[in-house]
Structure formats: C-alpha cells, structure tokens
C-alpha cells in the first residue's frame, strides 16, 4: 500500500516499507525517527520520538523553500539550479538527523518528482549524496500519509463521523476521506500553487484574463468531488493553508494561540483571496503572517483552497501543521516493530 524508502544511520540497510498498515496505532517500535518531505516548493524535515501508544514528540523541525519545481509548469524537466539547491538542503537535513541519533530516516518525493521526466535521476542523486534512498510516492500514497499523520493529535477536533483532509502543495492537491477505522477514499488532483502560478499567473499582479484562465484550470482539475458528509471534520494542511491561516491570525480575522488547530472559514479565505488578487508580489512579501518566499504563489494556492471548500460545501476547516512527514514517522515506527 505505502512504500517509503528508509535508511538506518548505522549504515545497515533496511527494506522499504512495502505493505505497511498506516491506519493502526498499534505495533509501534518506540524510538527516534526522521522524515524528509521533498515537495515542489519546499523541503520539510521532522525528527520525532515515538512512544508505543502512538505519541509523537517532535525533536527537530526544519523547513526550506528550494522551489525544486521551478519552471516545471512550462517544461517537463527539473532545472539544474533547482536540483542543486534542493540536494544541498536534503544533505543538510540528513546530516542534522544523524547528529541526533535517529533510528531511521525516510525521504519521500511528491508531485514534482512524479511529473518531471528527470525525477528518477534526481532521486538517484539524493541516494548518492546521502546514502538514503528517496521514494517517489504516488498521489494516493501522499494522501494516505497526510491522513495517517493527523491521527491521534489531541489538539485537533475528534470527528463524530468522517474526517476529510485537503492538502494543497506546489504541484498537486490531495483530498482524503476516512473514519477512525482508516481511509476509504483518496484522490490526487494535478493542480498546485507553483504549477498554477507558472502556467497562468504571469503578470504582477495577474490580469483578469489570467485569473479567469487559472480558475478554469482549477475547476477542470478538481471536477466535482463529493460534498462534505454531515458531522464530518475538514482539516487543511500544506503551505498554502498554513500561510493563509497565519495571515488571518496576524490580521485579527481569526483568533487562537497558534495556527495549528485554528478554524479558518470559507468567508475568510474569500476575503484573503480578494486582497491578494490585486496586490503586487512585492506588497505581498510585506503581509504579516506570510512567508516572503511564498508571496508569488500564495494567490494560486488561495484560489485552489477557495474552490475546494466551495465544492465540498465546507463552511470552515481546521488548520493542521501535521502532514506527510508525520505519517512517514509512524510508518517507520511500524516497520521497525515488524522487523524486530
């Protein structure tokens, strides 16, 4: 079902995580694990201690915007400069992970590596530079890992019925549905904040015609997903969601001690979208709560989120900072339990 490349820092190779059940919270090998999520726009590191009962305590977290997918919206190859930036970051993250004595490291590549003709070549470069195999995961596996990474977090609302997670990345958008027993539907859509920006939003700020073309592309990519079921809890993750929520928090549009667990309404997303639509990138960089390096792609991400919430008929979502890397940590802990 899910396969994630793994590596033991001692140099002894472990098999990949083929066939692991990401739904169960049982059979975990306690220990310290690290996961590196290589995306279209950013590279994310999480090192965490896992307890046998499923508790996850972050020990080290890092994020770097390397824009590996730069130019991929216009041509099918990863660019040399983008690969060099990203490879350097991955190498640094692996070194950091080893310095805190993790039991195993997983590196996963998402839409950017699925779409690029030379994605497998880059994965080989990562292996050569770090000694850790990188697994290019499918869209369905990406959605599954995002769902698994949000199980058991007491800071998030407990679903009375279903839990639906939307994950907006730089190259794709995932929607996964499930219950306490596990997922039952996963969908990956070929639209993300980086690729949409490069293909349709060339002007600064974008023209009305460009925004209309981008909107049409979003609608074509998403189609008509099933409406949000009654009593379902909708969670939103990914850089777009986190930054929009951070902007809303900084602007007093929502309240709470932090972004994780905050409630972001569809109306609030619409207000932010209207604000961003006419704002030049340089002005966006100065917006409180927005990462400056994300200023050029946040409009596209907001357009996707607004459309997703509208299609699901979702009045609001709960923001979660948990994602693929958290799911990978649990997968590593289960794999090590099975190999004892």
Explain what you see.
With 340 residues, the protein is an alpha/beta fold. The protein has 2 domains: 6-142, ATPase, nucleotide binding domain (Nucleotidyltransferase, domain 5, 2-Layer Sandwich), CATH 3.30.420; 157-319, Exopolyphosphatase. Domain 2 (Nucleotidyltransferase, domain 5). Helices cover 38% and strands 21% of the residues. It is built from 11 helices and 12 strands. The protein has helices at residues 80-99, 111-115, 119-130, 139-148, 193-200, 208-222, 239-250, 266-277, 281-284, 298-312, 324-338; strands at 6-7, 31-38, 42-50, 56-65, 104-109, 134-136, 163-168, 173-179, 182-189, 233-237, 263-265, 316-319. A hairpin with a 5-residue loop joins strand 3 and strand 4 (56-65). Helix 6 (208-222) packs across helix 10 and helix 8 (266-277) packs antiparallel against helix 10. The longest helix is centred in the first third of the chain and has 20 residues, at 80-99. The chain starts with 5 loop residues before the first strand and ends with a helix. Mean pLDDT is 90; it is low at 1-24.
Keywords:
340 residues, alpha/beta, Nucleotidyltransferase, domain 5, 2 domains, six-stranded mixed β-sheet, 21% strand
Which CATH C-level class of the largest domain is it?
Alpha Beta
How helix-rich are the residues, as a percent range? Answer: 25-40%
Q: What oligomeric assembly is this protein in?
A: single chain
Q: Would you identify the CATH architecture of the largest domain?
A: 2-Layer Sandwich
Strands, total number:
12
Instruction: Report the structural category.
Output: alpha/beta
The largest pleated sheet is described as: 6 strands, mixed
Domain tally? 2
Rough outline: globular
SS strand fraction:
15-25%
Rounded radius of gyration (Å): 19 Å
Mean pLDDT: 90
How many helix segments? 11
Low-pLDDT ranges: 1-24
Question: What is the CA–CA distance across the termini?
Answer: 21 Å
CATH superfamily of the largest domain: Exopolyphosphatase. Domain 2
Series of secondary-structure elements, N-terminal to C-terminal: EEEEHEHHEHEEEHHEHEHHHEH
CATH level-3 fold name of the largest domain: Nucleotidyltransferase, domain 5
